[in-house]
Design a protein that fits this description.
Distance between the termini of chain B: 222 Å
Oligomer: heterodimer
Strand content of chain A: 5-15%
Helix content of chain B: 40-55%
Largest sheet of chain B: 5 strands, mixed, barrel
Largest sheet of chain A: 2 strands, antiparallel
Number of helices of chain B: 11
Helix content of chain A: 55-70%
Number of helices of chain A: 3
Order of helices and strands of chain B: HEEEHEEHEHEHEHEHEHHHHEEE
Largest interface: A-B, 39 and 41 residues
Shape of chain B: rod-shaped
Structural class of chain A: mainly alpha
Strand order of the largest sheet of chain B: 1-2-3-5-4
Order of helices and strands of chain A: HHHEE
Number of domains of chain A: 1
Radius of gyration of chain A: 19 Å
């Protein structure tokens, strides 16, 4: 448990670089760990701070999210994409 | 006849000729319904056809409304229609002005539909255990539909509103006509190379014939083979195609498909996020309060373990012990005193002094020896006489 959490702490990505899903999932884990208790006060505070960053990241992504639409142009191999903009917005 | 007619005159004459032919009035015709459309005016337009021919039909609003309550015709159904043959002069098209309709049993297209449905059903392609759940938060939504259709616009508007976090991968295909089925299959295959989390297969409403590409066996098998769950949104709520039966989820319309694919909207996520943030803050508060409490307890315990406290404890114990000792000593002394008084009393009782009180006297020589025999003294000797109270000197006479 502890070596895993340690390596996790080391490889924590900056919250700003996470996708909504990643940030949300990590936030859920943090809340679960906080609720389970059994953490030192230092660890709790560190988790809380991380959680706040993640919550801010998620909130920001929700605010600015814009549906991305690509049109597939099959060429049989890798296929090409082009941005698709429908006339009505 | 050397008359020359205008087109209008010709059409009017033909119309009257048709309407005056008693065999063409109140005529009964059997055929399959096709291209059935209800116009905003309330009139119905459709075609009756068989294997080799077709005739335009119209049912005016008043009759259509009456008809609706008896039997509502559907695409592909074989019907018997009764009405009058007339001519639509504007177009020069003759048509059946329908008075009433009744079903003749299942039409040819419908029979084919049922045959394929039965076959695929027997293969287990519609089995409930084959149905895969839709992802709750799809990252990539594959969309197989016509790039020009209203269905696409409807879907995109809903996705934009409900779940703009997603990426949409549009795999364009015609959705109508004989060429549509292989192209739908190809569009699904192209999409599969990019591994969407879910696929929407959609087409807006139209005549049953227009939806026929979705009753194609090739399309059905491509849907069944798709690696991602497929949701169908084809035609209107009352339209059921083979594609609907094979799909993991059937939505009544393209818009409904978009709604179902985004079961969790960004609004829901925002609410979840707020809840998580609140839980986190609450838990931290509880934790710090608990820790503070524990800290206070520990501090109290620690105080008890300090040298000063130990010293104080020892001192207290010593004081306590000495107090106990003092009390014990007091008791002891009192006891001794009582015993001592007892002895004094006893001594008093045997004391010669007590005898003196009864009037005896003790005679001593000056050096202290008690005179017990008269011959021990000679006249003139000084003696001391001790009586009960005091003593005095005498000389032996």
């Amino acid at each position: 448990m502890s070596p895993r959490s340690k390596s996790k702490t080391k490889t924590l990505a900056a919250a700003d670089e996470l996708s909504f899903e990643q940030a949300f999932e990590e936030l859920e884990q943090i809340v679960r760990r906080l609720e389970a208790g059994q953490l030192s006060l230092d660890d709790s505070l560190a988790l809380f701070e991380r959680g706040q960053l993640l919550a801010a990241r998620c909130g920001g992504l929700l605010e600015t999210a814009e549906l991305k639409i690509k049109k597939l142009i099959p060429n049989g191999l890798g296929d090409d994409f082009e941005d698709f903009e429908d006339t009505e917005t | 006849m050397d008359e020359t007619w205008s087109v209008s005159e010709l059409n009017r004459y033909v119309r009257q000729a048709l309407e005056q032919d008693y065999r063409l009035q109140g005529v009964r015709v059997t055929g399959e319904i096709s291209g059935f459309r209800v116009y905003p005016s309330g009139h119905w337009y459709f075609t009756l056809k068989d294997a080799g021919a077709q005739v335009n039909c119209v049912m005016w609003r008043g009759r259509a409304e009456a008809q609706r309550s008896r039997y509502l015709p559907r695409e592909g159904e074989a019907v018997e229609a009764q009405g009058n043959i007339t001519l639509y002069e504007v177009r020069g098209q003759y048509q059946l002005d329908v008075a009433w309709l009744q079903p003749l049993g299942e039409g040819e297209l419908y029979r084919e539909f049922l045959r394929l449905k039965g076959k695929l059903e027997a293969e287990g392609l519609f089995a409930p255990e084959r149905k895969r759940p839709l992802p709750l938060q799809p990252r990539v939504i594959g969309l197989v539909t016509s790039p020009a259709g209203a269905a696409l616009r409807d879907i995109l508007n809903i996705l934009r509103r409900r779940f703009p976090l997603a990426h949409v991968l549009l795999s364009p295909t015609p959705v109508q006509g004989d060429e549509a089925p292989p192209q739908i299959v190809a569009a699904l295959a192209a999409l599969a190379r990019h591994q969407p989390d879910v696929i929407i297969l959609a087409r807006g409403g139209g005549a049953l014939e227009d939806l026929w590409a979705f009753n194609d066996e090739r399309v059905a098998r491509a849907i069944a083979a798709a690696r991602a769950p497929v949701i169908s949104g084809i035609g209107h709520e009352t339209d059921f195609t083979i594609a609907d039966f094979v799909a993991d989820v059937r939505a009544p319309t393209p818009s409904a498909a978009a709604e179902l694919v985004t079961a969790i909207s960004v609004e829901d996520l925002r609410a979840d996020l707020d809840l998580l943030a609140a839980r986190m803050a609450e838990t931290l508060l509880e934790t710090t309060q608990y820790k503070r409490l524990t800290l206070a307890e520990l501090q109290a315990q620690l105080k008890g373990l300090s040298p000063q406290a130990q010293l104080r404890n020892a001192r207290q114990r010593a004081e306590h012990l000495s107090a106990r000792a003092a009390t014990a000593m007091g008791h002891r002394l009192a006891l001794e005193r009582e015993r001592w008084q007892g002895w004094v009393q006893a001594l008093n009782e045997v004391s010669p002094l007590a005898v003196l009180e009864r009037g005896y006297a003790i005679v001593n020589r000056p050096e202290g020896a008690i005179v017990r025999r008269a011959k021990d003294v000679k006249p003139g000797d000084p003696l001391r006489v001790r009586v009960s109270e005091g003593e005095f000197g005498v000389h032996v006479g």
